[in-house]
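From the shared-data thread, chain only:
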Amino acid sequence: MKNILVPCDFSKPAEEAFKFAIKIASQSDGEIHVLHVIDITSLGGKSALSNSYVFNPSFLKDTEKEADQKFQAMWEKHAPMTMRIKFRHIISSLTLEIENYINVNKIDLVVMGTHGAGKGSFGSNTSKIVRASPVPVIAIRTAPVDIKDIVVPAFVLNQSNTQFIQKVKDLQSFFHATLHLIYINTPLFFQSDPDLYSELKKFAEQAQLKDFSLNVRAHYSIEAGITHFANEIDADMIAMGTHAWKGLDHFFLGSTAENIVNDFKLPIWTQCLA
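Structure, as tokens:
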């Protein structure tokens, strides 16, 4: 977690993401990249209107000045001026620019705020970035005080996901946290509890996990079950994989990770499994 990207629209959740990135960078001796994207798709309903803003020198100058002022105020409020923080603002497409920035600047973690579905352009794009990002993403609404208990939904756990497993173990090690593996037993894919506990134990042994608990809960949906369990143990974070499904595959199959990112208040750490 050395090279951290914080997409920022200067909203409250984005500011919380910046605060959490500072906490991580302070521990890892890392560098923070704050990226403010003026999304051209949100400037107006018609392309002609959007273009009139984009190519208006006065608009560009005023927008850049305002972004610089907001960033400076946020930095002074939350971080020492000696901290390694870079700031860039650009007019572009939000998701495209974030993907490009990750690749060009060798980012290894994205920390971003989320407003939940339907709460504005920036927040609604969080799930798209979660799905497309080649590096782990932490989506948060409020910066946590500490990370001690991490929920890991077991429906994505299998020995073929070696990269995901190692990333989760690295996450646990970084925060010195306990992992809580949870399998949500739903009516559609119901199995006996003894069988599920046996599978979870086998997985934990093969993955050589340390400091963990094994849990099975019955619920009508995976998302609701994860939420209920996280509240039950007063968890600090949820760590889960997401598939890079696109088009019709994504429409029909959906993504549990994206749904939880949109709806849950705890920090959500995600890693694309594709």
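Residues 3 and 108 are 6 Å apart (CA to CA).
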